[in-house]
Predict the 3D structure of the following.
Amino acid sequence: MNFKSYVPQNTFIRSYMEYTDGVETPQSFDFFTGLWIVGASCGNLYINRPRHPVPLNHYTILCSNSGHTRREYNVRCAKRFTGKVHVHEEYEHYIGKDKSGKDAVDYCNNGYNHDHMLLVTTTPVKLFNDCHAGVTAPDLASKCIFVYDDERKRAIAWPREDIIELPEAVLHRTTRDTKEINQLEINDTALRSYSSWYRKRYISRDPFLSVLESRDDEHLLRIAGILCVNDGILEIQGSHISKAIRLLNVLKDGRDRLFSGIDLGSGGRIVEAIEKVRKKIIAVGADGVRDRDIYRDVRTNVSLAEYRLLMRIMHEVDIVEKVQVTKSNGRSYNIYRPTSGVVKEAVASEVLARLVPHQY
């Protein structure tokens, strides 16, 4: 998708994308970071929706597998533009190493409809673990824009020096007039387009995804509002709603891949299965336990195919030892024994780190 086509020449977001063009970041990260910077620079500006106004502040999470996309570069750029406190290169550093994340959760929940902003990066595995730990609950996650992308613009072995000046003057010019108003209006054409989308939008039957989708109407209006400010118009047009709908569809596609590869709505069934296997293996000790007996304990959590993949990975990362036993009639079966790795603290995280790529 060519994100540059969504913003005109000489606007801030387009200038920012040209500034980051020499770095191996995905174009989507550049675009949505530019969008975030504009929103963060508009003060208390909000969209004048009756009874439920929509502020332009928002929480954006850039998500990709480790080392693929130089995603931290966008966060560093955002800090230079805004100086915002809650801009972090790693999601885990923001929520705290103890994974309780209480301060972060309170910050997001209490400031969602005010002037709080958040821009962080993470990986699919960390995000998955935090969902099961209760840090990233569905309600909190619904307040975030997840940008999931593993595709670099291109391979750049040696990034060039900054030959394009940081477009701070363009940002100042873009947001200058927003300081004189406190609300954005929407014209009739844009309102009809938005209302039509709202009535027809698809809501997932998945319990987790349906909560995530519950604030898509607000995200759509925010995107349209920021595009409007970026264009220097200060009134949402039909074209802004049309672009926002297409951009939201891209975000939803990535979000669905993030959260629906493994069923998060079932109370952490994969993590629960890992723990059941671990406890059973420890309990039987060196005698080992038959394959079918383990599956009998976890079949309410995982399918047979998922179970086989799970055991294969636990064997590969040296959590269990696999032994094939041949009976007198020539038939064979597998038993599993514990290794020293079965008592490690982060067994579930280690297995998930291997499991999640298989799901995508």
